[in-house]
Amino acid sequence: MKNTITKYLVENKQIRIYILSGKQIYRDTQRLDINDYEKSLFRKALNITALSNAINPGTQRLTYTFLSKKRTSKISTESFSNNTITGIINLKESELTFKGGTLQTISALNSQYGGSHTSYSVLDYDNLYKDIEQYYCNSEQIPTYLFPLSDEHNSENIVLLIQSLPFANEKIVAKVLKQVHSAKNDFKHATTKIVSEKLSSVLTDWKYLETINVEYSCGCSKEMFLGLIFSLSPEELDTIISKNEKLNVSCSLCGKKYEFSADDISNYL
Fold first, then answer.
1. What is the pTM of this model?
2. Mean pLDDT score, 13-40
3. Strand 207-216 and strand 84-90: pairing?
4. Radius of gyration of the chain (CA)
5. Residues contacting residue 59 through CB under 8 Å, at least 6 positions apart
6. In terms of DSSP H, where are the helices of 184-233?
7. CA–CA dist 15, 202 (Å, integer)
8. Strand (E) positions, the chain?
9. In what order do the strands lie in the sheet with 74-79?
């Protein structure tokens, strides 16, 4: 079972719509040995990463790291050019909020971090979807809007992503966003088919483009956790290297543990 993302053009090719059916993400996060709140947060981060995989170039590797204000809790996800995603979650706070924390984004072409670009932004919301919308806005990328449609108990795990193209009429964009928001409550228990049928009936010039599969995989390897090294601050890296410490991580799906020595980290840097 994989996650599917179906792409459409609407409103005279002014707006792109992506519909994620994240059934595999839902199934596999439900199996994790973490509490329901942590499952929900992790699922949202993976949904965002799956949709990012669909809208980014096929040669791009992308890492999101959500860090709490106290810097003791972290969700890190990665998107790969072969349409797979992975991630880890490590929450250590009893009353957790990411509001006031930091979002670190690392993007690299051809899956190589040597030519990567890293950006940081403040998490102004206690809502990962809203934080990603703000990231797209502040980084001057295409305006992007996210609408989680399924409730927490719907295994369809449907999330809608809307992007306005550069030449889009602002009134048309506002109309589409309003229509989707108005219909949002009707989709809590819906299937992907119902969502697409409903939206195609209220939006004009509904044109199907393609459907892609994105797999949430634990085909893990040590290299898949390199993003964690690059998510550390220069001070943290200096401490690990100078004290010859080790960085231990584990796959959130299979539990396999990986160790990065100070020499490993120096070589990767």
1. 0.81
2. 93
3. parallel
4. 19
5. 81, 109, 110, 111
6. 192-202, 226-231
7. 14
8. 3-10, 15-21, 60-67, 74-79, 84-90, 102-109, 117-122, 144-148, 158-164, 207-216, 247-250, 257-260
9. 117-122, 102-109, 60-67, 74-79, 84-90, 207-216, 3-10, 15-21, 158-164, 144-148
